[in-house]
Structure to design on (423 residues):
């Protein structure tokens, strides 16, 4: 199967410069991007499979002696290409704040407690149908210094590879109904409201485990289409 | 047809997940691409990431993707495949001074469009707080005659091509800085 990577879909992404997100002001390129063809260098990419993942990597509540505090949740979904076909055997890396809104990262100085039973980092590999599943706790909102009284909506960072160098994606998954969406310049950097909504997970009763944990569904679409589509 | 999931910044706090050496977690990829069976000319690439003020960027992640010394990629789309366990993918975080480095081998020439060869090069992705989607660029090598005929370099305005060429800094050592914005801004691609 040979894949092509149309550029039309790229309009879903935020621009590099989004002035409300102050961090972009000195880090966004000012010169136009150079459009290049898709050579073997772009059409290939790293392939990491099941050997990269340890037994407890997909369950962030079982990586320490005790259970982390917070609301236990199940985050699952499918990784698809632009034709809606599953992307099997592809590595997903996630990281997040704990239930109090604190990251273990050494630079995070937010006045909220660390949880000795929570690191907040996980990995898994999609199955043959492109499915993945993590168990974790719901991350808290946390303050940052972008503007006065700035708070990030609760989110989980996702990093994915897909079929090639062109399908690589780093993004963030949000939770439905978060009151901070309207005030968050990172979420709002995505120009199309419909594209923004694709980053919001859905509460899902089917994957909710009775008397144990709420389920959230988050499907991810990576670049790539079949080179010879069935319909023109 | 499914619509793409939009990109978001990697943020400032990725290290304990993506480059977690300092956090005692197992890394499946590092800045050292050389494996016991890797053949080819060993090289070290050193550089710094700078912002529009010329200040170091201490919280960037750099990823590289390259062919082996014969110009073959370890991927199903390249039928030739390396005959070693060389993967060709590396990842490094910048330090407080914005510096990063990779230990690898010099890639061979890679097939290009219409059967023409591409000059030896490494594909590079840059992620950082304040960078809303991956920046895509390439590293080429100083003194390569093939650079003059490279079909991708040819698309870059001549006065900016030098931003993509790593300078030889000694035996097996190259230096290459990434400038996100402003004077000497690195050429970034849309592909």
């Amino acid at each position: 199967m040979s894949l092509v990577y149309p550029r039309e879909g790229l309009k879903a992404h935020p621009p590099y410069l989004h002035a409300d997100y102050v961090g972009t002001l000195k880090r966004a390129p000012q010169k136009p991007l150079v459009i290049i063809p898709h050579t073997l260098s772009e059409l290939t990419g790293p392939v990491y499979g099941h050997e990269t993942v340890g037994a407890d990597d997909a369950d962030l509540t079982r990586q320490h002696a005790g259970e982390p505090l917070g609301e236990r949740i199940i985050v699952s979904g499918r990784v698809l290409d632009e034709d809606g076909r599953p992307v099997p055997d592809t590595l997903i890396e996630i990281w997040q704040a704990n239930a109090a809104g604190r990251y273990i990262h050494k630079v995070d100085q937010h006045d909220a407690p660390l949880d000795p039973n929570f690191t907040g980092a996980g990995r898994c590999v999609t199955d043959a149908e492109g499915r993945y599943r993590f168990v974790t706790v719901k991350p808290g909102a946390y303050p940052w210094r972008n503007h006065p009284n700035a708070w990030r909506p609760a989110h989980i960072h996702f990093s994915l590879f897909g079929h090639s160098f062109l399908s690589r994606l780093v993004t963030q998954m949000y939770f439905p109904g978060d009151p901070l969406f309207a005030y968050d310049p990172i979420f709002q950097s995505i120009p199309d409201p419909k594209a923004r909504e694709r980053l919001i997970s859905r509460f899902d009763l089917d994957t909710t485990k009775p008397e144990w944990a709420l389920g959230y569904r988050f499907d991810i679409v990576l670049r790539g289409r079949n080179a010879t589509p069935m319909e023109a | 047809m499914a619509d793409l999931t939009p990109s978001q910044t990697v943020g400032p706090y990725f290290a304990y997940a993506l480059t977690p050496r300092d956090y005692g977690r197992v890394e499946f990829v590092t800045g050292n691409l050389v494996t016991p069976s890797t053949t080819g000319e060993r090289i070290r690439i050193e550089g710094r990431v700078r912002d529009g003020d010329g200040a170091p960027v201490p919280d960037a992640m750099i990823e590289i993707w390259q062919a082996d010394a014969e110009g073959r990629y370890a991927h199903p789309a390249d039928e030739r495949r390396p005959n070693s366990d060389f993967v060709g993918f590396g990842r490094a975080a910048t330090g407080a001074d914005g510096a990063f480095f990779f230990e690898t081998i010099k890639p061979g020439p890679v097939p290009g469009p219409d059967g023409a060869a591409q000059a030896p090069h490494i594909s590079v992705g840059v992620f950082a707080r304040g960078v809303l989607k991956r920046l895509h660029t390439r590293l080429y090598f100083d003194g390569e005659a093939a650079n003059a005929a490279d079909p991708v370099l040819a698309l870059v305005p001549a006065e900016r091509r030098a931003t993509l060429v790593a300078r030889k800094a000694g035996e097996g050592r190259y230096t290459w800085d990434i400038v996100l914005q402003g004077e000497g801004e690195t050429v970034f691609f849309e592909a």
